[in-house]
Amino acid sequence: MDFSQNILSLLIWLPIAGGVVLLVIGDNNDVRSSQSITMRFAALGMSVLTFVLSIALYKWFDNGTPAMQFVERNSWIPALDVWYYLGVDGISAPLILLTTFITPLVVIAGWDTITVRPAQYFAAFLILEGLMIGVFSALDGLLFYVFWEAMLVPMFLIIGVWGGARRIYATVKFFLYTFLGSVLMLVAFIYLYGKTGSFDLFGFMNASLSLTAQQLIFIAFLLAFAVKVPMWPVHTWLPDAHVEAPTGGSVILAAIMLKMGGYGFIRLSLPIVPDGSDYFATFIIVLSLIAVVYIGFVALMQEDMKKLIAYSSIAHMGFVTLGFFLVWQITEGTGAGLGMTGGMIQMVSHGLISGALFLCVGVLYDRVHSRQIADYGGVANTMPKFAAFMVLFSMANAGLPGTSGFVGEFMVIIASFKANFWYAFLAATILVLGAAYTLWMVKRVIYGDVANDNVAALDDLNAREFIVLAILAVSVLLIGLWPAPLVDMMNVSIEHLLQQIGQTKL
Amino acid sequence: MNFTDYLAAAPEITLLGLLCVVLIADLFVDDKRRMLTFWLSMGALLITLLVLLTTDPGARIVIFDGSYVSDSLSQVLKVAATGFVAIAFLYARDYLRANDLHKGEYYLLGIFGLLGMMIMISANSLLTMYLGLETLALSQYAMVAIDRNNAASAESAMKYFVLGAIASGALLYGISWVYGITGTLKFDEIAAVITSNPGLSSLPLWFGLAFLIVGIAFKFGAVPFHMWLPDVYQGARSPITLYIASAPKLAALALALRILVDGLGDLHDVWADMIMVVAVLSLLVGNIVAIAQTNIKRMLGYSTIAHVGFILLAVFLGTGKGDAAALFYTLTYVVAVAGAFGIVILLSRRGFEAEELADFKGLNARSPWFALMMMFFMLSLTGIPPFIGFFGKLNVIDAALSSGYTGLAVLMVLASVVGAFYYLRVIWFMYFEDAEDRAVLQPSADTRLVLSLNGIAVLALGIVPGWLWALCLAVLAA
After folding, report:
1. B1 burial class (0-12, 13-18, 19+ CB within 10 angstroms)?
2. Would an 8 Å CB–CB cutoff place B465 in contact with chain A?
3. Position A1 confidence tier, pLDDT thresholds 50, 70, 90
4. How many CB atoms lie within 10 A of CB A133?
5. Each residue of B189-201: pLDDT tens digit?
6. Taking CB atoms and an 8 Å cutoff, what residues of chain A touch B379?
7. pTM
């Protein structure tokens, strides 16, 4: 069967249908009941099947063209000229692969640790997966918005139902923050719809707009994406959401949902309002640098491991926005492309590393039920295998060469040198700060003498946890040592994007 | 007058005839066999619906000496109103039986009210409009008071009656001014008179217009004429609240569109500002005050005020697109709100009115399916895609932007964010809190089916909203 033309629809709707199947199978809080086992294998099967399909996407993907591939275009709401319009290029395809790669790991990570309404838990993740792939592949503004907003609902439930003690505060804050950010994007979309007569994103990109209109649209987009990234100063929802979310929720949030913001900038802000982006570029760069430096210091002071990783996520995502907006400040040759490619690689790499770190914290939390750094110490003595992984991912987070964390950051720093020495100087401080806060955490948690009875009683990783962390470790090293396939995939699309935004729309 | 005149009014005539049948039949039915009245009423609604569909004139027909109109707008609104009244009857039935309120009057007054709505929807003159309005309003006053041993119901019925009578008086006063100045009661003639005599558009006519708007705002429950709405929603028994909250909104929309657009369209510049102030205030007050509510019926009352703000903002634009957006918004809003009250009724049982937000705690554990349905209704009311409520908001915002009101569009979306909080709170109570009340829900099979269909419709309409929007555009923007 040739389904290459419908592969994006399959990737979106298969997990969603899977989620519905899980809900039909129903909840059984007894992990060993056959109903629960069936349900969990169905969840795993669906997520793995989606991943296998996405490998087909990778295989069939043509690196040589900036055009959209696997395009599907069917009329959806003719009265509004809205299309069910899907397609991927080198910018969205890696993020789809990241999504399909992380979701099965999340399913495995939650395998028998979720004892309250497990069917709803796994269903929420599968539906979320489909919606996130929808965001990355939608080429119609309204379709994009529908996926973008719908995505909030499963996440709201995931944090609210399965989260920690302050979960309700955290999840309502998460929902309202992101909802507030995105409604103005809707107004911008509708404005552009009024200009061009359809919600087609390419129509938006080709529309000529005055500078004032571009500035206002940029601000509307900025609110939506800055909240998602999140950029300083609208980041405060993230530490709360991360700390209270269940492990799987934190992983998806850090690994994929934050990437929505970066993706929004590169897919919508830059090509639709290039002059507006140019106008605000310095502003964004300054915000990014504040995120990198200031949030780095904040991370240093955290006593809760999840909070520390959450702040480190904000700092690392600062690199992404920095890389994207450097393009306006670089005049010579290859630097602009370098910053953008660096930002993209940083998104993928941070997805893997932060996801892995949250899983590591989840492993500890399942055993001790504490996330406080002070409650641990000397874990390496009782959990040597775990300690090896934790150290590896921490090193990657600090940007150790040979890991994926190094590649993106290095590219962005080189690009920022071409723009302005001080940008590079400040950006490079993350290498110092990042090393400081991650390795200090590692020192306090992993090394030293066994701190207390809880740590003394720890069991090392079981097979399930080992597999998940091993897969992530391999991919972190793979991208670190051999980033070429990933770079090749996005190269042509980024070149095309640079040309596109080089032309003023005034 | 000839036969086609009667044909265009056939649905109302049929309904009135069947109403008499039900009325007389109900006299011979005792409380034990009251189900007969229910099925007869449902039969009456079904036959009316069939008559509506078969006698569709397909064009605009004005009858009864110009005071009655049958057009595609009236057709759409009447079909919807009949449907929603039937849904309200079904959701109400089990509750009324369980609470010893299962009297024929609920259904009879409901059908009387429907007749009033249909007359309003088809009104082509101010007097016909007033006639329909009073038929509807009197039925509603009596319905609110149906549980006469309940102090809260009696109090809210009194409030509703007194304030409603004042509003009707204001409307009638405005009608008399308009009639005095233009010399006619018929909407098309009023429009023609004003067009041919621009000098008429002066203070006296505006004075009358202001009173008409007071009447319209009161019937919608728009700020500052909203005081009755939360009290009545809370005080009335849930099935009556459901009835008041659903179909009559369609009639209120007809009231606004017929008077302001059909009759006084030329005075758009004058009434637009008044409507806008009322609408913006409703949007703000409704959304903000709803946050503080702990009673779900009251909360939905304030949320109604906020939604009315949206509807009136669409009417305010005075464009075909705006009117179509108002129609679309009202229809989709009523679908969601009918379902929400359906769930409220479902949670109640003998001697226990589930009306506090806290009563929703842990619903997901008690009944995952109905918790899901309630979540659908809440998300639709919030305006989260892909639920239908999102497209209602989308169309209103689109209409506002294409008329150049960017500021209003931003205000609308920001108000939706404020509104999101109290809808989310229902979801959080259902999903995140533990149940205090663990009684098993036992809806009857047909209620279960229709409520489920209602919930699925909120989602399914959102996935294929195109036809409904095309219909609304064809009805109003053509």
Report:
1. exposed
2. yes
3. very low
4. 33
5. 888 898 888 888 7
6. 153
7. 0.91
